[in-house]
Amino acid sequence: MKAVIFDLDGVLANTVEFHYLSTKKVADVLNVPFTREMNQQFQGMNRNHLIKHLLKHTEKPFSDKDIKTYGTLKNKTYQNLIQTLKPEDVLPGMMTFLLDLKNQNIQTAIASSSSNAKTVLEKLEIVSFFDTIVPAASITKMKPDPEIFLRAADDLHVPYNECVAIEDSEAGMQAIQATTMFSVGIGSDPLVKTADWHVYKTEDLTLTTLIEKFECKNNKR
Fold it and tell me: What is the per-residue pLDDT across 27-71, written as a single tens digit (0 to 9) for each?
């Protein structure tokens, strides 16, 4: 195991609620329903995909300009919300996990669909822990396509089968499982539970156990 690739929302930072609130604002403007359950389903997917879904429910024709306008509204709302983030908002156990990775000289990367990933990491004061942050704007096929995870590994110059990738969303888990990377799933989503190693909470994730699970799987190959 030479590298660990992280999703951001729901893995390192509890920004899922911020995504819900910013999307709900757009939904209210469009007068279409949007619930926390729906937010979970779209977690890990890019902004345009989400806006297109909302606009389809208006039953009115929409253009690329409309997608951009409402996408900008969501993004500005989200950007305002993440200004409140502080170092103590790093999810439980993850600071220890990052420190352990650094001490073991294991490379790290961020593979997030969010265009605001670097800002979130800076607010949490953990940006220095990552060797690369894949810019979401540089990805042509977003999750559930594996492109962003493959790009992260390529940036680190680490073979895919020597990487671990961590996700909490269905789309993200589909992306990892389309590669030869070792998958770690966090949370209660049914597909996330099919990961090579599944934990319900971030504090259950430890480097010692991860290495054991990774080596166990590779020894069976």
Answer: 999 999 999 988 888 876 778 888 998 999 898 899 999 999 999
Give the up-direction half-sphere exposure of residue 132: CA atoms within 13 A in the CB hemisphere.
21
Point out the catalytic residue in the list 7, 168, 189, 196. Answer: 7
Contact 195, 173 (CB under 8 A): yes
Reply yes or no on whether 189 is catalytic: no
CATH of the domain at 158: 3.40.50.1000
- Domain span including residue 113: 3-13+89-220
- Distance between CA 194 and CA 198 in Å, rounded? 7
Residue 104 token pair:
């073991």
7 tagged catalytic: yes
CA distance 113 to 135: 8
